[in-house]
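Service request form, structural biology core

Requester: graduate student, group of Dr. S.
Request type: structure prediction, single chain
Budget code: on file
Notes: please return the result as structure tokens.

Sequence provided:
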Amino acid sequence: MILSHALDMVEQGGLDALTMRALAARSGVTPMTIYHHFHDQDGLIKSMAERAFAAVAVPKAATGRTAIAELLGAYHATIIRHPALLLAVFRRPAAHPVQALVLTDTLEQLVTGMGLPPDSARRWTHILIDHTHGAALAVAREGTLPSQVLAVTADHAAAVALLLGGLAAAGRT
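Core staff response, request fulfilled:
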């Protein structure tokens, strides 16, 4: 309940709207309860991000390019749902969720599996993640119509397919 309220507050008013007192009032608890569970705002943001990004994973049956595309598609969709949370994590490095590291490591393993040496795989991983961040944040703003989200999601998928084509070519050289 507390994390859901905190996420709503950040998505509705940005990071500045998230205070421990306001969250406590909205959740029907004391501010000390919030501090007891999360210690500080960084701990709260980290817990929110862990929850939001927990569902971003590679489907068990997916491999290679399909696994990369599906992982990035799930990440893209999550960012569109929670853009202010991602921006909060960017602003507060101590709030960086472990799940983001798992996502990055998983993606890097998949990219390496396409035949790239580790240094190239790391670069391609960052390219793919940064593209996904930019594509999702570009559309995730107030007033965006559902049809625009669908179009941008399709555009992101097409761009990822192009990038993966380049990645595959890089793995063959």
